[in-house]
Design goal:
Elements lengths: L14 E4 L5 E6 L5 H9 L3 H8 L8 H8 L6 E8 L2 E11 L13 E8 L8 H15 L4 E6 L4 H8 L5 E6 L2 E7 L4 H23 L3 E5 L8 H11 L5 E5 L9 E2 L4 E4 L11 E4 L6 H11 L3 E4 L9 H16 L3 E3 L5 E4 L6 E4 L7 E8 L2 H14 L9 E6 L8 H9 L6 E6 L5 H12 L4 E5 L20 H10 L3 E3 L2 H13 L7 E6 L2 H13 L3 E2 L3 E2 L6 H13 L5 E6 L15 H14 L6 E5 L3 H8 L91 E2 L2 H22 L12 H15 L9 E2 L2 H10 L7 E3 L3 H11 L3 E5 L13 E5 L2 H15 L2 H4 L1 E5 L5 E10 L3 E8 L2 H4 L4 E5 L4 H10 L17 H17 L3 E11 L4 E3 L2 E5 L17
Parallel strand pairs: 5-6, 9-10, 9-13, 10-12, 13-14, 14-15, 18-19, 18-20, 20-21, 21-22, 23-24, 23-25, 23-26, 26-27, 27-28
Antiparallel strand pairs: 1-2, 2-3, 3-4, 4-5, 6-8, 7-8, 11-12, 16-17, 16-19, 29-39, 30-33, 31-32, 31-33, 34-35, 34-37, 35-36, 37-38, 37-39
């Protein structure tokens, strides 16, 4: 058991957490200078709560009690406090005990007694549950494996805290007291409980920001213009349903209302008699701390800071930003910004536009988050151009532009949108990812129920956007893209692609497969769509080209036939203005409106298949398709469909070269429905979503096993270029395939021979020996023998390597290993370089070994320089390389490729996020371009890919179980027809940072 020197105050135990109601609290160790806070806290606790804590009336703490509860050794006795506004609101402590329940004398005793006390005013906020997570993590760090707690039977709230935690428990009743004992080793259930609480708390904190009952704009100037006055005008013009106040210390004392807006005007926040839920701050950066203090003292729930001059302004601004974040959290407030553009909520019962956007976007079902105000403007403008107005194809549910995102980030919005009934598609523009492990976890979970579309700025190595104090990515952008796709994220490159993909996913069902029908009245445009499909690895049918004079009825009939075909999963319609004699539509209708009505009629009959439109010079077509459809006419008897022409024949008067159609294949199996605006939603009971009575009831997730009809009114996305339409459709096809696979996820195998606890002890011993004074995060290489022993704990066995500093030693080593052997150099410049002669294989005897040794040293250098080693030969096979590493911006990554030129020269390496499942590893092996060499290319014997997959999974488990393992490199791994051999291995260790996604929930500090 490790004890800190001089019982040092453990700063890494400090954490900010979000509570059940969306507020925040600070959790930290209790220190000797907390005596006054403890006494004040205890005085505010009811007599009943004190009785539950001490099993007897205990009106006040004695001086001895205060000293005992504030002086800890942070090993055998630890106390933590939850703090809001500088005052304790709850405490927890543990005392190490022996098997008899007495204070422990032996440092090997691994049990502790734990007790809580929560101020009555803060009970029900989830404070005790958060404290339990953190005190359990502290106890595990100090070698404690079990907690014991004695609770009075009437204290049902505290009993529930323990029983709901998900740990393995034992419960007894004796002498009128309930005794609970539980192991602190995290279980699948305890992790699920913790993640569920985290999601609900963080979602609630965002919901409080997006749906405030009252807003104060602090810094609204007296004269029109300026940031504050602009934000105030946006708020009022949006039709915000709550109360609005203008605050400015420069207002005259007799000023009651701000004109011409006619809103209440006050000089200070304290003059507002009612609660304020959201404060919009637009004052100079030097004045912000005073404003935030006033907000905290007034009980404001969240602040939106539009002011600039923070981390984007340099080191001084970065320190100012950190102080601002600490100040806001000390009062339990969430913070958007600083340097933010604002937030918008289009829900009819809120209508909030607390941003600098010049107009309120239309209401819809796209959730939008950006870290850049400029990109936020571009996205809002682009969406408005594609479908303005409420109910249009481009309507949004909520928008947040977080600026420097010192607090609220994309992860928080993913938590909120995961079960938000008003959001069907999530669009994120990210310039940095502060907690990549958590982002991957949240994105994967959200993508399982609704699409997540991401564009990543600052993609190149070594770049970080101004204002974002996060590590920069070390892996190539292609690797980041592959890892995002593994998590189900739809990764795009541009703002235009964000909008294109978002519109299709928000309005159309997911395709059941990659088979695409193409039809239209332009052969050239149809062929462009066909080529684009092939480029995106879709399976297009031969385009059906209608005459240039085709009428809307012709389009309707052709689309209806294409959608009804079994060999079609989606349809791309191409259209150019009508060319020919006579009128194709009545004088009362525009050509685009008539064609839009015809396409809608055909699509409504087949709501399970997506339709997208490519148009040239037909803006009225795009506008009509994007808008809500008119009310349906009374039902009439359907007329028989005219016989459709051959779908592979070009129906034009001029010559054409038909494109051969690929062979049809069976449709893909069904996937859980992505049903825009009417899809199964987690944690939401069946029934109409609130405030959206016109929308149909959402079925339960278990019932969602097939595509649902497209919601009414029908909207169809239209694009001015075939490539854009097909690229968006291809993203939907790939996402649908991922959803089908996610419906039957793989598993992380359990191996009986893995010695997790022993490996952890080895790692701690090695870190103490190799990094006694190294800072957290700095990695060190593990000596070869120790690395081999650590890998062996996880069932990864390397071939023995014996040093050969001279010929005689080499001969003895070969005799020990048995001939034939290999003689290799281990000098860094020659490692794995058989092409330079540094590796000699199949040495059959002593004389050959001596001769080879002499040749090697004569040709390449002295033994001291070459560092030769001897290793036994292994069966022939394919040389591969397996790596695992912790990237600061991408998380834990598992990599695989063929050794040598394929991986080093061509970059043919496949990556997966850790922990990887058996399904993901199997796909990883097959995804590299050189994979045929593993499966019998050109008549060669296939190798044992099952053994290869097992080693990959074991490496993944090692890195996932022990965040201190920051690098593993197995090279080469020779995979034979039966089994494999690991010939070389290196391991790097570093002390794990306190803020990881593997421990108790906590808010990040950037």
């Amino acid at each position: 058991m490790q004890k800190p020197p001089d019982h040092a105050y453990p700063t890494h135990w400090e954490a900010d957490v979000v509570l059940r109601d969306g507020g925040t609290a600070r959790i930290r160790p209790i220190a000797p200078d907390d005596a006054e806070r403890l006494v004040s806290f205890y005085e505010q606790v009811s007599d009943e709560s004190k009785y539950y804590r001490f099993f007897a009336p205990y009106p006040r703490l004695s001086d001895r009690d205060v000293h005992r509860f504030t002086h800890h050794d942070y090993v055998d006795r630890v106390g933590l406090a939850a703090i809001v506004g500088g005052e304790f609101i709850a405490t927890v402590r543990y005392d190490r005990i022996n098997d008899q329940g007495l204070p422990a004398k032996d440092p090997e005793d691994d049990q502790a007694e734990v007790a809580f006390l929560v101020q009555d005013a803060h009970q029900g906020r989830g404070v005790a549950s958060a404290l339990l997570e953190h005190i359990a993590a502290v106890a595990r760090e100090r070698g404690i494996r079990r907690f014991a707690a004695e609770v009075l039977p009437a204290n049902s709230k505290m009993i529930k805290v323990f029983t709901d935690a998900g740990y393995t428990q034992k419960r007894t009743f004796e002498d009128g007291v309930v005794r609970l004992e539980f192991d602190l080793e995290p279980t699948e259930q305890s992790m699920a409980v913790m993640r569920g609480r985290e999601q609900r708390a963080e979602a609630r904190s965002v919901q409080r920001l997006l749906a405030p009952g009252s807003v104060a704009v602090i810094g609204a100037g007296r004269a029109p213009g300026g940031v504050g006055r602009t934000a105030l005008r946006s708020l009022l013009e949006s039709g915000f349903t709550g109360r609005v106040h203008a605050v400015n210390h420069a207002f005259p004392e007799d000023m009651q209302r701000l004109l011409p807006e006619d809103v209440p005007a006050v000089r200070a926040l304290q003059e507002i008699p009612d609660p304020v839920d959201l404060a919009v701050i637009a004052v100079p950066a030097d004045s912000v701390p005073d404003v935030v203090r006033d907000c905290g003292e007034h009980g404001v729930q969240g602040v939106l800071i539009l002011s600039s001059g923070y981390a984007e302004a340099g080191l001084e601004g970065r320190e100012r930003q950190r102080a601002l974040l600490g100040q806001a959290r000390s009062y339990g407030m969430r913070l958007i910004g600083p340097n933010a553009f604002g937030l918008i909520n289009t829900a009819p019962d809120v209508r909030l536009n607390a941003s600098l956007a010049p107009q309120m976007p239309g209401a819809g079902h796209i959730g939008l988050f950006t870290q850049s105000g400029a990109i936020g403007i571009a996205l809002l403008s682009g969406l408005h151009a594609r479908g303005p107005g409420d109910g249009g194809i481009a309507g949004i549910s909520a928008f947040v532009s977080a600026g420097n995102r010192a607090d609220v980030s994309g992860n928080d919005l993913l938590q909120y949108w995961y079960d938000d009934p008003d959001t069907d598609v999530v669009i994120l523009y990210l310039e940095s990812i502060g907690n990549p492990r958590k982002f991957a976890r949240l994105a994967r979970r959200t993508a399982a129920v609704k699409p997540v579309v991401v564009a990543k700025g600052a993609r190149h190595n070594g770049t970080a956007p101004p204002g974002h104090a996060v590590p920069t990515v070390r892996v190539p952008d292609s690797t980041v893209a592959a890892l995002m796709r593994q998590a189900g994220v739809i990764r795009v490159d541009t703002v235009t692609e964000l909008i294109d993909a978002g519109l299709l996913l928000a309005s159309q069902p997911l395709p059941a497969g990659p088979r695409i029908a193409i039809l239209g009245n332009s052969e050239s445009l149809a062929l462009l769509a066909y080529d684009a499909c092939l480029t995106e690895r879709l399976r297009p049918q031969s385009p059906r080209v209608l005459p240039s004079a085709a009428t809307p009825d012709d389009f309707r009939a052709a689309l209806a036939e294409a959608l009804s075909g079994d060999g079609c999963d989606a349809v791309v319609v191409t259209a150019i203005p009508w060319v020919g004699e006579g009128a194709a539509v009545s004088p009362a209708d525009s050509e685009g409106a008539a064609l839009a009505a015809a396409l809608r009629t055909a699509a409504e009959a087949h709501p399970e298949k997506p339709v997208t439109v490519v148009h040239l010079a037909m803006d009225d077509l795009a506008e009509t398709l994007a808008a809500p459809a008119p009310a349906p006419a009374p039902a009439q008897s359907p007329e028989p469909e005219p016989a459709a022409p051959d779908p592979v024949r070009v129906e034009s008067t001029g010559p054409a070269d038909p494109v051969p159609a690929p062979a049809a294949r069976p449709a893909e199996p069904p996937l859980p429905a992505h049903n825009p605006s009417n899809r199964a939603r987690p944690l939401i009971p069946p029934g109409p979503p609130p405030n959206l009575a016109a929308r149909q009831p959402a079925p339960s997730r278990d019932a969602a096993t097939a595509h649902r009809p497209r919601p009414s009114p029908l909207r169809i996305p239209a694009y001015p270029a075939a490539e854009r339409a097909v690229r968006s459709l291809a993203e939907a096809v790939r996402y649908a395939a991922w959803r089908r696979e996610a419906a039957e996820p793989g598993r992380v195998p359990e191996y009986d021979d893995i010695q997790e606890a022993a490996a952890g002890a080895d790692i701690e011993r090695l870190l103490n020996r190799l990094t006694p004074d190294a800072p957290t995060g700095r990695s060190v290489p593990v000596p070869p023998q120790d690395a081999e022993a650590l890998l062996a704990r996880y069932g990864i066995h390397t071939r023995p390597v014996l040093p050969a500093p001279d010929p005689d030693t080499a001969v003895r080593a070969a005799a020990r290993l048995g001939y034939p052997v290999a003689l290799k150099t281990t000098a860094p410049h020659l490692r794995h370089r058989a092409d330079l002669g540094g590796v000699r294989l199949d040495i059959a005897g002593e004389s050959e070994l001596r001769r080879t040794y002499a040749e090697l040293t004569d040709f390449l250098g002295s033994p001291e320089e070459l560092r030769p080693v001897v290793q036994s030969m292994v069966p022939r096979g394919v040389d591969t390389v397996i790596r695992a590493a912790i990237d600061p911006a991408a998380g834990a990554v598992l990599s695989f490729g063929l050794a040598g030129a394929p991986s080093q020269l061509l970059g043919d390496i496949a990556h997966r996020l850790i922990p990887a499942t058996d399904r993901e590893v199997a796909e990883q092996i097959r995804s590299i371009r050189a994979a045929p060499l593993l499966f019998g290319w050109r008549g060669s014997q296939p190798v044992d890919t099952a053994a290869l997959a097992e080693v990959l999974l074991r490496v993944s488990r090692l890195v996932d179980d022990h965040p201190e393992v920051v690098g593993v490199d197995l090279e080469p791994v020779v995979v034979a027809a039966h089994g494999l051999s690991v010939l070389g291995a290196t391991v790097r260790l570093a002390r794990a940072p306190a803020t990881t996604d593997l421990g108790p929930r906590r808010l990040p500090v950037y």
